[in-house]
Amino acid sequence: MHNSDLMDKIVSLCKRRGFIFQSSEIYGGLANAWDYGPFGAELKRNLKNCWWKSNVSERDDMVGLDAAILMHPNTWKASGHAENFTDLLVDDKKTKKRFRVDHLSPEEQAKIGTQYTEPREFNLMLKTRLGAVEDTSSDVFLRPETAQGIFVNFKNILDSTSRRLPFGIAQIGKSFRNEITAGNFVFRMREFEQMEIEYFTTAEDSDACYEEWINRRFNWYTEHGIRKENLKLRKHDDDELAHYAKGCTDVEYQFPFGWSELEGIANRTDYDLKQHAELSGKDLRYHNKITNERFYPYVIEPSGGVDRAALAFLVDAYHEEEVDGRSRVVLKLHKDLAPTKVAVLPLLKKNADIVSMAQSIKTDLQKSLTCVYDDSAAIGKLYRRQDEVGTFFCVTVDVESLDDKQVTVRDRDTMGQQRVPVENLKRYIQDQLS
Ligand code: ATP
User: Is 214 among the domain residues?
Assistant: First the structure.
C-alpha cells in the first residue's frame, strides 16, 4: 500500500469508527486540534495506564506527579523557554508556505535568501492572561512541556518521600506549543499530551543510566506491539544538542510520512535544577545523609508524546487481509491497548431470551473488562465492525446458547471460534488477556 494511502485510511478509519475527530468540526474545525472519540479515548487511557504501570507502579525507584499546567512565569525564564524556545522559520516567497529550517533538506536550505525568506525566530509558547489587572505581570504561559513541573517540585518530593538517589519522577499531562508548521494528524498538534520522566542520578552513573533508559523506552514500544523493524534509535549529533545536554537519542517510528521522533531520551546534566535554584534562591541540592554531601544530581529525561504514540500504535496495528475473497480491516492492537476487550453480540435481536442472556453476560463482564453490546446488523458485519476497532473477543449468543448455556467466542486475530460455557466465560477471557 502506498504510504499516503495508508495515512488517509487511518485518518478515515479514526473518524468513521470514533477514534479521532477534528476539533469543533461543526464550525469548520480548528486547524491541528483533534478530539478523541469513544474508542480513541479508551485507547489513549489504556496507553497512559500501560506507561504508568511500567514506569511507576511496577518500579521501586519511581514516583508520580500531576503538576498544574499554569506555572509561575519565572519557571520559563529559568528553563530557557522564554528566550530560546523558538523555531527558525522561513517562508516560501511564491507559495507563502512556512517551513522550519531544520525540516528543509540541504538542497532546500541552500535556497534560503532566494526561494525562501531569511530565517526568523518564533517563540512556541502560548501566552494567556490571569486576573483582572491589565498589566504584564499577569501574563502566564500554557506549559510547553510537563518536565518543568517536575523540577520545581524536586524539593517537595524529596522532603515528602525521603527518596534516595537514583530515583525518578513521572508525569503525564497536557502541553501546548504554538507550532507554526503543525500537521500530519495527531503527530504535531498545538495542544497535546506528554509522558515524561526525570530520573535523578549522580554524574558518574549518568552515562550508564542514559543507556539503560534508551533501551527500556525502545523495548516498551515493542513490548506493546510495535514491530521492531518500524522503530529505530537516532543519536543526536553534537551540533544538535542543547548546550547543557550530554547526549540525546530519539526513538523514531516509521510513520507513513517518514521516520519521525516518537520520544526523546536526554542526559540533561544538572542544568535544570541549578537554573531553578539560581532564579528562585532556594537550595535544590540533594543531600546524601550518609556522606553528608550536597550536590545537584544529573537527570536523564525520557520524554514521549501520548498522541504520537497513539498514532504509531494505530498505524502499526492496521492490517488489511483477504478472507474468503473479501477484504477485512483489522486493528491488531496489543491486548492492553485495545479500546474494547469484548463485544457481546446477540445473534437474533428479536428473541427476548437471547437478548436477555446477552445483556446479562455483558453486565457481568463489564465489571472488569471494557465491553460493548451490538445488535444492529447481521453477525458477519458485526464481526467486521469489531475487527476495525481492534476488539479482542466477540461473544455470540445464539439459540443453542439458551439450551446448552454456552456461547461462541471468536478471536480477533485468528478468527478461530470456540464454544465456552457461560459460567467459565469470564475466566476464559481473563486467562487469554493476562
Ligand atoms: P519535534 O522536533 O518533532 O518538534 P521536539 O524534539 O520538539 O519534537 P520534545 O520537546 O522532545 O519534542 O518533546 C517530547 C515529545 O513530546 C516528542 O517526542 C513528541 O512525542 C511529543 N511532542 C512534542 N511536540 C509535539 C506536538 N506538537 N504534538 C504532539 N506531540 C508532540
Answer: yes
For the chain, helix (H) and strand (E) counts, in that order, are 14, 23
Q: Does residue 268 have its Cβ closer than 6 Å to ligand 1?
A: no
Ligand 1 proximity of 264 Cβ (cutoff 6 Å): yes
Ligand 1 atom closest to residue 187's alpha carbon, by position in its atom list: 29
In angstroms, what is the span from residue 38 Cα to ligand 1's centroid? 25
Determine the Cα–Cα distance for residues 352 and 334; give it in Å rounded to an integer: 35
Tell me phi and psi for residue 374, to 5 degrees. -145, 125
For the Cβ of 191 lying below 6 angstroms from any atom of ligand 1, the answer is: no
Three cell numbers at 79? 528553563
Q: Ligand 1 within 6 A of 192 CB? A: yes
Residues 270 and 349 grouped into a single domain: no
Q: Does ligand 1 lie within 6 Å of residue 250's CB atom?
A: no
Range of the domain at 357: 340-433
> Could you tell me where the DSSP H helices lie in 177-292?
206-223, 271-280
Q: Is residue 325 part of a domain?
A: no
> Is residue 334 assigned to a domain?
no
- As a whole number of angstroms, the distance between CA 90 and CA 222 comes to 37
Tell me: do 251 and 377 sit in the same domain: no
**The model's pTM:** 0.93
Q: Are residues 310 and 344 in the same domain?
A: no
Q: How far is CA 266 from CA 59, 191, 233, 271, 343, in A?
A: 20, 23, 13, 12, 42
Strand-pairing partners, residue 88, are: 121
Residue 17 alpha carbon to ligand 1 centre in Å: 27
Which residue ranges of the chain lie beneath pLDDT 70? 1-2, 132-137, 182
Query: Which CATH number belongs to the domain containing residue 53 in this structure?
Result: 3.30.930.10
Q: What is the pLDDT of residues 339-379, one digit of tens each?
A: 999 999 999 989 999 999 999 999 999 999 999 999 999 99
